[in-house]
Amino acid sequence: MPDFSGALNLQIIEFTGCEMLPEVSPSIKYVKNLKELDLSGCQEIESLPTTKGLRSLTKLTLLGCIALKNLSKVSKSIEELDLEGASIEKVPYCSKLRSLKKLDLLGCSKLKKFPKLSMSVEELCLSHDHEHLYRSLEQSHKNLDLSGLKILRLLHWNELGNILKTNLGRLRELELSQSSFTDIGSIKDLSCLESLIIIGCTSLQLLREFPPRLKRLEARNCTGLQEVTDSKFALVETPVRLLDFKVDFSFFNCHKLNEDARRSVPSHAQQMIRIFSQEALKQLTRGVGRRDEVRFVYPGNEIPNWINCRSTGSSITLELPCNLCDRKFLGFVLCAIIDDEAVQLLGWTDFLVYCECLFESNDASRNKTLDENLWMLKTSPSKSAGAHVLVWYSTRLHQAIVSSLGGEDYYKKATFQFHQYFENETSDELRGVTECGVRLLYIDEETRKRKRRRNQKKRPRNDMR
After folding, report:
1. pLDDT digit string (tens) for 238-259?
2. CA–CA separation, 16 vs 39, rounded Å?
3. Residue 387 burial (CB < 10 Å; 0-12/13-18/19+)?
4. Superfamily assignment of 1-146 in CATH?
5. What is the dihedral of CA 456, 458, 460, 464, to 10 degrees?
6. Model-level pTM?
7. What is the mean pLDDT of the chain?
8. Beta bridge partners of 337
9. For the chain, which residues make up each domain, given as ranges?
């Protein structure tokens, strides 16, 4: 057991994976400059000496300390407290930890009562590991103040009960992965929610009433999901004027989606892309560069009807119009049908789809090539996963094309070659992309008419004589 009395200026102490470490020396109280203490995987530690006097300590990690039953008073400067997998029955003095921002109680199966939190807590992680904790939450939900939360993770939850009925007005990210409920219920009142993660909720059948600012929905491996009743996907109230805005809706391996859902998802992908591309063009004309991205992934084997240039196989070539990069040009929408049979057979878990965009002229020395990563799938392969549709748009590609090609007219055609990448190997022989499509985006005529009408209204009228 190390003695810290001679190491007073240490800022980080890490004993990660020291499974046989029996305890931490009380001399740690002399390390006044200590900022982080990490005891992850120290399975023999049953208690921890007080850190109350360590006023610089901001992060305490006790992940996997399965023998830890008692937690002495901790420093009031703590910002992150990770107790995942610990055997503690009580979390002391959380309401007095005014600097605490993140509290992780995943896997704390011995915890009998939910702690009272201070308003400073922004991220909370819980799992439905023990009935005592669930009962405590249900009984106290009316008096539970979670109004400061921005991130809430509820993993392996059997039923949501009343926890989402508490004051969560500032919540931006909600994760309910690996849970077994059939219906989340309405979350439309979570007005600040931007991200909903429900990976592996195999019993979930229905999604409804999305909140107005949702821009990320990760429903991967929700194999029982059938119905998505909110058809608007919060398009109207999305704050698209924010820079570097990303929209990502993934229904990977949701093969029970009904016909209404399969029709509405590509339709709303089109609408979302239209909104973002036109807003990006406005910003670009003002000299503001953007890095927006819109991506939709869903089960299917057909290119959406609104993507008008299509080809079988993994590449497509199209003739480019004159003045490609004029002020009406918004970029390209890319689409690919992904048959992940090869991923299933080979058992790879990292699967990347990217596109090589080649712009050709009569003079080969002027040819331009741009590469874009479209989608990374990092998950254990699922037996039921099959063909999926990937629809993608990025203002980054649009701006790269405009800056690379400029106003030049000698680029006559473009070839888009889709590739799949498996753990450091590129292989086009594995049928990763079986069909692809591209759509050139321009400001539509109706939008131009509306713009002209607005400009006319702004013009001052001459006085009638």
Report:
1. 454 555 578 899 998 899 999 9
2. 5
3. middle
4. Ribonuclease Inhibitor (3.80.10.10)
5. 60
6. 0.86
7. 81
8. 389, 435
9. 1-146, 299-459
